[in-house]
């Protein structure tokens, strides 16, 4: 066949299925690579650089409900947004597969599969895959911080602490840009030429914690078909960013503390201590001192993480930066959507300044993108912002109890997790974690 349609990575723990799929798909695609364990996904994507991942939703590891497939789907899309993912599911998991599409999956294929339908679906997914983005993690290198005094003070702090090896704890509400601060510290450090590995701790369950952070050895559990390097080993010599650290259970906190304190890890199923040299940067939207006082966070771990502390202010606390940020995002999205928009009218600027921005920079960015899509002229108008659904003058998310906020969002969206997470400006795995915490 003259024309082939890209590179496919197959993730399925059934050897027979992997062999059959390779035979079926090889005539239509440039190259097929198969793996038996989802823990190999990250290394396989880095080496193989696929256009599409065909991801089974159930594995014989620690989770057998389809949720493991959702976890790895979320992880792939967060790191490699240009890769398309097709879910491979048994008939009983179709509701989970539908949830997977809400999380960014291209489509799902039900087992036993129809060869023609499978090939056509993967062809369409490969055609949609975004070329050069597929194997490079998302980056916000061009991020504009603002020029307020509060931001200038943070810049000065970063100038002093970046060259050191001390741990850093970044605090602030959802959407303020804590991950950007972490990357800035890394980029100015002596470790900048070594790995930077980010982990959303809110998405790492207790059952997967040790395997994800410390790795596992071949045969340590069913489905562990090869040795796997955990995040600590992947970040060796560099920086490990632990986002949403406040969501970690006490049991996992104890394991993390031992690794940081002793500077060694032991893989799941292994008996050899592995020395690790990483700088820890962590972030949270919680008041960890309060969490410590109320017994939900270990005091000894807090002091290990908080060598330096940076408080990233909410956008409503530095309103002088709003218009600068809005213009920054305006340039980005005008280019993306081939619009010639040169500025923002005064009425629209006033409207932006009056908004409370509970979702902070993330929310502002989303609203400017929607407004650009609706805009027709060379100046962004108030009508464009309203057409993009910006409501204005919302109350801060900190004004309500977190449990109440989540409950309200679930009610408003009919318990649609994807929509509720967007409304709350948090990741879906984080929302799942909080729902479990509050028994919602």
Protein model, in words:
There is one protein chain. With 440 residues, the protein is α/β, with parallel strands linked by helices. It is built from 19 helices and 16 strands. It has helices spanning 15-25, 41-48, 67-79, 94-102, 115-128, 149-161, 178-187, 206-214, 231-234, 250-262, 288-293, 299-305, 322-336, 346-354, 360-374, 382-387, 402-412, 417-424, 428-437; strands at 7-11, 31-35, 52-56, 84-90, 107-111, 168-171, 196-200, 215-216, 228-229, 239-243, 264-266, 273-275, 279-284, 308-311, 343-344, 379-380. The strands form 5 sheets. A 5-stranded parallel β-sheet has the order 2-1-3-4-5, sandwiched between helices. A 5-stranded parallel β-sheet has the order 7-10-13-6-14. It has a two-stranded antiparallel sheet with strand order 8-9. The protein is globular and about 65 Å long. Residues 131-142 and 391-400 have low confidence and may be disordered.
Rg, alpha carbons: 23 Å
Give the tally of β-strands: 16
Q: Are there runs of 5+ residues with pLDDT below 50, and where?
A: 131-142, 391-400
Helix run count: 19
Main β-sheet description:
5 strands, parallel
- Percent helix, as a range, is 40-55%
The backbone outline, from C-alpha atoms, is globular
Query: Could you state the oligomeric state of the chains shown?
Result: single chain
Structural class, please?
alpha/beta
Mean pLDDT: 84
Strand content: 5-15%
Task: Record the strand order, biggest sheet.
Answer: 2-1-3-4-5
Distance between the termini: 53 Å
């Amino acid at each position: 066949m003259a024309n082939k349609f890209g590179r496919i990575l197959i993730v399925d723990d059934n050897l027979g299925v992997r062999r059959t799929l390779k035979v079926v798909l090889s005539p239509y695609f440039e190259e097929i690579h198969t793996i038996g364990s989802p823990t190999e996904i990250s290394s396989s994507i880095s080496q193989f650089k696929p256009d599409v991942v065909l991801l089974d939703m159930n594995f014989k590891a620690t989770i057998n409900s389809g949720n493991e497939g959702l976890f790895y789907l979320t992880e792939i899309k967060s790191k490699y947004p240009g890769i398309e993912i097709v879910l491979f599911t048994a008939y009983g998991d179709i509701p989970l597969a539908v949830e997977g599409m809400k999380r960014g999956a291209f489509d799902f294929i039900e087992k036993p599969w129809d060869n023609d339908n499978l090939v056509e679906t993967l062809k369409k997914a490969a055609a949609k895959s975004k070329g050069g983005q597929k194997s490079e993690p998302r980056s916000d290198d061009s991020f504009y911080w603002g020029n307020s005094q509060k931001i200038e003070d943070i810049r000065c702090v970063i100038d002093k602490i970046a060259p050191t090896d001390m741990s850093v704890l970044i605090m602030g509400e959802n959407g303020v840009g804590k991950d950007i601060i972490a990357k800035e510290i890394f980029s100015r450090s002596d470790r900048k030429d070594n790995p930077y590995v980010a982990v959303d701790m809110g998405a790492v369950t207790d059952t997967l914690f040790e395997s994800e952070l410390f790795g596992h050895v071949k045969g340590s559990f069913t489905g562990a078909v090869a040795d796997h390097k955990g995040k600590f080993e992947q970040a060796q010599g560099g920086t490990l960013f632990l986002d949403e650290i406040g969501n970690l259970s006490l049991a996992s906190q104890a394991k993390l503390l031992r690794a940081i304190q002793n500077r060694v890890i032991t893989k799941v199923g292994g008996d050899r201590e592995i020395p690790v040299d990483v700088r820890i940067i962590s972030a949270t939207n919680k008041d960890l001192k309060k969490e410590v006082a109320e017994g939900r966070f270990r005091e000894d771990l807090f002091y290990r993480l908080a060598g330096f502390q940076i408080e990233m202010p909410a956008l409503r606390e530095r309103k002088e930066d709003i218009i600068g940020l809005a213009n920054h995002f305006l340039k980005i999205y005008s280019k993306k959507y081939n619009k010639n928009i040169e500025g923002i009218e005064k009425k629209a600027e006033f409207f932006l300044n009056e908004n409370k921005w509970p979702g902070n920079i993330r929310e502002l960015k989303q609203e400017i993108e929607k407004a650009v899509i609706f805009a027709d002229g060379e100046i962004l108008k108030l009508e464009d912002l309203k057409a993009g659904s910006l409501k204005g003058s919302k109350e801060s998310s900190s004004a309500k109890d977190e449990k109440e906020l989540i409950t309200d969002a679930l009610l408003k969206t009919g318990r649609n997790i994807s929509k509720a997470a967007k409304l709350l400006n948090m990741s879906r795995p984080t929302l799942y974690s909080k729902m479990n915490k509050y028994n919602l």
